[in-house]
Amino acid sequence: MNKEEENSAGGKGTHLDRKKLFSTVGTPDYIAIEVLYQKGYDKMVDWWSLGVIMFECLVGFAPFHAKDPLATCRKIVRYEKYFKIPPEAKVTKHALDLMKRLVCPAHRRIGIDQIKKHQWFKVWCIFFSFCLNQKKRQ
């Protein structure tokens, strides 16, 4: 039995030991492109999903949604064509920049350290700090 077989069979290692995963699970609208290519993926897929959720919250709909899951997957594979912000959404340049740094190929995607330092979060931290200070004064 090789290492991968041991891991999947509950042998010496566990699934936590693996650097890459190969299963295809999740809600189709939020699945990262590398999951669909079935060549293995890591935790960076979660940051793709965050970018899609951020898009949905700020714009009002999921960028890759379609009537059936296969059509959704086709849109994800062609994400550059479908990940477009309509002008009426009035999304800030910082929000757009962050979403584009999350919804992109894994080798270009930013991780938690860069996300926390991103200008979009800096603006929100200033805003929330101001709100908290105002509340304390009341």
Automatic annotation (TrEMBL):
Sample GO molecular function, one term: protein serine/threonine kinase activity
Keyword tRNA processing annotated: no
Protein name: Protein kinase domain-containing protein
Domain (Protein kinase): residue spans on this chain: 1-121
Cited PROSITE patterns: PROTEIN_KINASE_DOM
Pfam families: Pkinase
Entry keywords, A to Z: Membrane, Phosphoprotein, Transmembrane, Transmembrane helix
Annotated transmembrane regions: 47-66
Reactions mediated catalytically: L-threonyl-[protein] + ATP = O-phospho-L-threonyl-[protein] + ADP + H(+); L-seryl-[protein] + ATP = O-phospho-L-seryl-[protein] + ADP + H(+)
PANTHER family: CHROMOSOME UNDETERMINED SCAFFOLD_135, WHOLE GENOME SHOTGUN SEQUENCE, MYOTONIC DYSTROPHY S/T KINASE-RELATED
